[in-house]
Amino acid sequence: MKEQRDYQGDLASIRTVMERSVKFLSLSGLSGILAGLYALLGAAYAYVVLPTPPSPLQYAYEDVTKHLPALFAIALAVLVASLLTGFLLARQKAKRLGAAVWDSTSQRLLFNLSVPLAAGGIFIIALFLNNHNSMIAPVSLIFYGLALLNASHQLYGEVKYLGYSEIVLGLVASFFPGYGMAFWTIGFGLLHIIYGAVMFKKYDR
After folding, report:
1. Is the dihedral angle over the CA atoms 165, 26, 42, 138 positive or is it negative?
2. What is the rounded distance in angstroms from the CA atom of residue 50 to the CA atom of residue 60?
3. For a FRET experiment, which of 5, 9, 111, 135 has its CA 20 to 30 Å from that of 169?
4. C-alpha distances in Å from residue 201, one per residue of 14, 18, 19, 102, 155
5. What is the residue-level pLDDT of the chain in tens, covering all 205 positions?
């Protein structure tokens, strides 16, 4: 009986170590909020770069097409800033927990995230080359949501709800061509801020 209790205790210890080694890599509350703010700033700058739309939310296809290089540059800047912020906060949290930032678990996590994101990126390039620009924003939301779901079993459970939300939003956006900027702002901006606030209140306080 004592050996069985010791065995169960060892398993619990191993599970705790594994959770500590990977869950700090989850999109933390603060990094989620900052990523959302970066996206909102990027969207605000895009409104400055693009000509005045026919309505506050809708852009004509030809206007967006003319400025796609600028939009891609803005999206890339938001992505780099978000990833860098997430990494720095994860490294800081790892030091506090005494966990390694880069191990077999984090490598597996990165792989699970990268496959859907890489597939989505290639698909977006194909859409751009074939002039299906109105579908770029919906596809980016859908594949981002799929990436979160693919890695959610290694992260905090709340990540999967963010993934579901991004997928649903992307599917809805696919029926409203011309409103991609608005849906992109909601998905990468507001949803990240809401998720980050929930995570901050639950885990980071």
Report:
1. negative
2. 11
3. 111
4. 27, 23, 19, 27, 17
5. 545 555 555 555 545 544 544 554 555 688 889 999 999 999 888 877 776 555 555 555 545 667 777 878 888 899 899 888 888 887 777 777 666 666 666 777 788 888 999 999 999 999 988 988 889 889 999 999 999 898 877 677 778 899 999 999 999 999 988 788 889 999 999 999 999 898 888 776 6
